[in-house]
Amino acid sequence: MNRRHFIAATGATLLTLLAGCKTEPDGEKFVGYWKSDKGNHPALIHITRNGDSFLFKETAWSIVGNVGYRTRTVPAVIKDADNVLVVADTIHLAYDEKEDAIVSDRTKAHRITEAQYQSVINNS
Q1: Deepest of 45, 69, 72, 99, by most Cβ within 10 A of its Cβ?
Q2: Are 62 and 45 in contact (CB under 8 A)?
Q3: 28-54, pLDDT tens digit by residue?
Q4: To the nearest whole number, what is the mean pLDDT of the chain?
Q5: What is the pTM of this model?
């Protein structure tokens, strides 16, 4: 009987230790500055935390109305898997760890520094 209690306690302790090994909050890998791979007018993305969710700020080239870069900010959340960020309930972004990129069915963006992001924003 004591052996069963020991095995159960050891298993519970091991599970507790493994659960405690996670070093970053869900979705932390999405936070930062990103630049898409779109030719002459790449889109810029800035993802920040907003409590338990995120804010997804995209600055992209627009030909509607006044031609030039336009910025929009929409909410985003982690859904079902830690590796998928759902933006405005419509776009699903996956994180590609090998390339340090975020990928959807319509775009791919690589991580950049804040200085690189500001440089593009200021020159547009």
Answers
A1: 45
A2: no
A3: 999 999 999 777 788 999 999 999 899
A4: 81
A5: 0.75
Q: Are 87 and 76 in contact (CB under 8 A)?
A: yes
* DSSP code string of 1-50: -HHHHHHHHHHHHHHHHHHTT--S-TTGGG-EEEEE--SSS--EEEEEEE
C-alpha 60/C-alpha 51 separation (Å) is: 25
List the structure tokens of 49: 């935390």
**Residue/partner pairs of 46-49 with CB below 8 Å, 24 or more apart:** 46/117, 47/76, 47/85
Q: Tokens 């007018």 correspond to what residue?
A: 41
Distance CA 84, CA 94 (A): 5
In the three-class reduction of DSSP (H, G, I as helix; E, B as strand; rest coil), residue 115 is classed as: helix
Nearest Cα neighbor of 54 from 89, 27, 92, 93 is 27
